[in-house]
Input
Amino acid sequence: MLKDQKVVVCGGGGFIGGHLIGDLLRSGHTGVRSVDIKPVDEWYQRFPEAENLQLDLGRLEDCQAALKGAAVVYNLAADMGGMGFIENNKALCMLSVLINTHLLMAAKDHGVQRFFYASSACVYNADKQRDPNVTALKESDAYPAMPEDGYGWEKLFSERMCRHFREDFGMQTRVARYHNVYGPHGTWEGGREKAPAAICRKVIAAKRSGKHEIEIWGDGKQTRSFMYITDCLKGTQDLTWSDITEPLNIGSSELVSINQLVDIVEGIAGVKLNRNYNLSAPKGVNGRNSDNTRIKELMGWEPDTRLAVGLEKTYRWIYDQIASQV
Ligand code: NAD
Output
């Protein structure tokens, strides 16, 4: 694409959207527009070189304004968070369907050339995620459908919307199924944070207070993979400009238990903590990993930043946030 074409990042005030805008600007794009429902001074990263708009993309008229002149759209806007948020806010999660629906309608009206949609590993059938010793999830495991209640159903429905806008209207939609993304400039407190940021925050708090204890949600044996933000951005850009029209896993295949995640963060912090397991806290499925056969076949690459490397950078960033609050 040409560097002066209009690129619209929806959800640009959030974690992944903010990083994507930084990446686009650094690579010379001059027509970057960022849109988010939050007031601009609450965005995680702010770039004065971009056109920054506060709009509610759940509304069709706001989507029409957001996509005026757009050639490329990245839809990263959603009302979402970690397990603590999505298990307790299913209706809010499902209302994100308005964002993708109205964005697709506006994109069709404006003749958008490429439309990227951020789906999630939460679309996968729950029956395939009951065992911590998981068989990694491949793209076909989304059907027969039994996704995560609320958030996952919305993602699966929106994936289908992208597919049918492509089949019926010829719009070039691309869909990624992200598996847990983490890194600096993400949510790390307030109830929407995910496991890597929450564990970093708790370890930092324990270290700073000298009270060497940590609460872990569930029994700590549940397994996951975590993808560092730079891998997420590479996968997003490569997929957007590829000919891959079916949803594709973009995730790390380095599987760890939550206990192992805590081990790594303790190692970075140089502490050892007593672990208290909260068995009534939301913990999600028992095991989830990304099967990267297809991404390797189609792109010759998979997300490969080692968890210990990405967590070190994330830990340092969260540490600085906490230190600057005092
Ligand atoms: P985020 O919460 O940091 O960013 C989402 C942004 O969307 C927020 O800034 C929010 O204010 C904005 N938004 C919400 N409703 C809006 C509306 N009506 N109009 C305009 N903006 C609105 O989340 P993120 O981690 O950056 O995730 C980006 C996308 O990737 C989301 O669709 C999410 O579901 C998906 N995803 C993320 C992960 C992950 O681990 N972070 C995993 C799987 C999928």
Q: What stands out?
A: The pocket of nicotinamide-adenine-dinucleotide is lined by residues 11, 13-17, 36-38, 56-58, 76-80, 99, 118, 120, 178, 180-181, 187, 194 (CB under 6 Å). The two ends are 45 Å apart (CA to CA).
